[in-house]
């Protein structure tokens, strides 16, 4: 009897893609039924894509001195009398096109926020894993450090650090590496949020059977923490990261507004708001108001997405 295959005429079942699996999951179902989440996601991606494609979309390059004319300063937006048609949102006090500076500034603010949160997550997750898994004196020491860090506000730590850094290295060096300084100080100031959350998850997960099985199989502590325990801690990490991106963007804007962040020749949302604050009562309100509105909308939609993600990933709050 020969081994032959019979064609039944039934086509093989196609393996669904990861995108379709996510779209048909509980998260995708909740997203489709939540108009606030949909609108927030659309607005967020519109702002983000416009910011990262600023070199293509922006009419002018605010970093190119040849495209800046001080005589064009403080022109109003096109819907106000006395405007120029080539400057749709008006110009700032340096004669730069406000639309272009907002696009470039939003990109810089988002980059600083994402990089600062990445640093926070790396430090906090590492410390939280070690603290929860090792326990004992190591846990007590690391958590006391977290308590000390939490007793100071982010802005207080950042103001002290950036003021000392600016005094030590001078304004020219500080302006050159302002992005790195901001990412470093915002990232270091907020790691306890991740550390405490990850530690709590590790304390619950390390007592479960799959961790005991991994130990019996001879896996080392590092592999158990990274390959087995950490994946079960991702849900709260995603929620914290969403909120922390918004907080990092606000922190950057606040520090730039106080003169300890991005310099005026490197536009961010905070430095744009700061540069126009002196002119807000003289009639040139748009220099501060329009970047401020963009900042408010950006932070608002990120926080709304964070609230939605928290409700979906928390089984006690999710109602389907």
UniProtKB/TrEMBL annotation:
Segments traversing the membrane: 36-58, 108-136, 148-168, 174-191, 229-250, 285-306
Membrane topology: Multi-pass membrane protein
Subcellular location: Cell membrane
Entry keyword set: Cell membrane, Membrane, Transmembrane, Transmembrane helix, Transport
Gene3D superfamilies: MetI-like
Domain spans labelled ABC transmembrane type-1: 106-306
Domain of life according to the entry: Bacteria
Primary localization class, coarse: membrane
Pfam families, per database record: BPD_transp_1, OppC_N
Protein family per UniProt: Belongs to the binding-protein-dependent transport system permease family.
The protein, known as: ABC transporter permease
Annotated organism of origin: Amylibacter marinus
